[in-house]
Each structure stands twice: as C-alpha cells, then as structure tokens.
Amino acid sequence: MSAVAYVNGTILGEREAMVSVFDHGFVFGEGVYEVLRTYGRQPFLFEPHVRRLRESAARIALDVPFTDEALLDRVRATLAAAPDLEEAYIRIVLTRGVGEFSYDPHSCASPTLVIIVKALGVTAPSAYEQGVEIRLVGVTRNHPQSLNPRIKSNNLLNNALAMQEAIRHGAFEALMKNYRGEICECSQSNFFIVKDGVATTPPIEAGLLAGITRAFVFDLGLETDIPVREGLLREDDVWQADEAFITSTTREIVPVVRVSGRVIGPGSPGPITRRLMEVYRACAARLVSAGAAAH
Ligand code: PMP
Questions:
Q1: Is pLDDT at 211 greater than 90 in this prediction?
Q2: Ligand 1 center to residue 209 CA distance, Å?
Q3: What domains lie within the chain, and their CATH numbers?
Q4: Strands 88-95, 31-39: parallel, antiparallel or unpaired by DSSP?
Q5: Residue 26 has pLDDT above 90, yes or no
Q6: What DSSP string runs through 210-240?
Q7: How far does the centroid of ligand 1 lie from the alpha carbon of residue 28, in Å?
C-alpha cells in the first residue's frame, strides 16, 4: 500500500503517519468518518459527504472545528501530496482526540483529524459484467437506539462481523436484516431490489446508513424515468426480485445475481441495473467535466 495522510496539520508518508494510543478514537472507537473517491482526481460529491460527516459528529457530540472549505483545502493538499495516483480513495477520520480516559465529551481538548489518501482499489470488472453473490447473514444490523447506523462511526465491529460471515461463504458482501427481521443494508453498501421495473431500497427508518450513492441513485431515477423508491423489504421480496444491486462510493453500482446461493432473476445483471450503472458513470463524468464534482 502506498498512501499519504494528513494528521492534525501535517501531511506524512504512510510509515510516518501516526496518532496517539491515548486518542479516544483508538481506545473507545469514538470517532466518525467518511470515504470519498475521486473522478478525474476531483473529490466526488464532497458536499453531501461533509454534510453527513457533520451529522454523524453531531450525533456523538463531537465538534467539527473547521469549515467545509477548510476541509476541502486539506483534502486537496493531501491529494496533491500523492501526484502519482490516477484516482484516489479518500478517508476522512475525525475522532474525539487525546484526553483522560473518561466518556465525558469534554475530557478531550481537541479532535484529531486524519485524511488518508491512497490508490482506489479496483473492483474486478467481472463483478460489474457478471454480477456478484452476496450472503444474507445471521448478524443483525445495530439497533438504531443502541448504535444508530446513521452514524458513520469508527465502531465497525457490527459491519466486520457480518462481513466475516460473508467471507466464510465466499460472498462479495454481507446483507443484514434489522432487529425487526426486515432487509436492511450490507456491511459496506446499500441494497436495492428491482421488481416490475421499480427499484426499491429499505427506508432510512429501517436503521441504515443514508448512503451518498443510494441518494445518487434516486437522482438517476429522475434522470432515466426509472422509478426508485424506499420501501420495506422482507426476505421473500429478495427471492422474488427480478434484479438486485448494491451501491457504495468506491464500487458505484454492482449487480447482485445470487443471494446465499439462490439465483436472483435470470442470474445475470438485469436491464434496469445495467441502465443505472451506465447513467451513473455518465453523470459522474459530466459533473467532473462541468467542474461540479464536489456538489
Ligand atoms: N452502508 C454502510 C454500512 C456502509 O459502510 C457504506 C459505505 N460507506 C454504505 C452503506 C454506502 O454508503 P456510500 O454510498 O455513502 O458510500
């Protein structure tokens, strides 16, 4: 891995980039984060990502002591320190910072800000062309009144344990149910089914992360006349779906053709999914060439 990182004001190489072991982000997992990617080396959809970062931080009573513009400047400076990267993965991490070991949010004087820039991992072309298998796992998504999945927090054990189960079965992603037994979201992506030409994804109220790509798919729906809706999904809706796909910043839209060994639709990426994938890429390219990628 070749990466650079901004750590509290200094841009460092991957070997030098360190944070204190006394940081509450390390000892308590008290922190929030965002993952962005670039298109044409421009951070994509920076504005909605920073908005979500602020919302996550507010939900854990964490100050965000900089403006959006100042953060974008730091992201750009970190990107500039990695000139060899064609496209970048950008992880912005904001933790409570260093302080006494206490859960009192006032025990830390200032948050720690880290911006990691590294090469964007490539998803195998076969995933987009042939689709992937995901696994409906036994790990339940966090109860919103326990640790709200809307908080994009550094507490990622729920996601990691779900994904471990998927990995044991050779699956690309882990699909989780919520505490009510409804279909919720995946460990690192949101989930959609397509039935009778309509794309449906579980509502935020089901207890999931409001994905930026998920929201972008709603915009693509307007652009393409494909109806995209929020709706409660149960296991049977998955088995009876014509198509399914997952969405995330780093992977865009990936067709799902099998869930836990059961074939979805004809077992190959369906026409609605393929159309959305195509329009996604066209839209991203258009925003970049219009200089509007950050919005
Ligand atoms: N759900 C979870 C649990 C995630 O970790 C992610 C990845 N950030 C997503 C959904 C997709 O969100 P986005 O489209 O903003 O990357």
A1: yes
A2: 6
A3: 4-119 (3.30.470.10), 125-285 (3.20.10.10)
A4: antiparallel
A5: yes
A6: --HHHHHHHHHHHHHT--EEE----HHHHHT
A7: 22
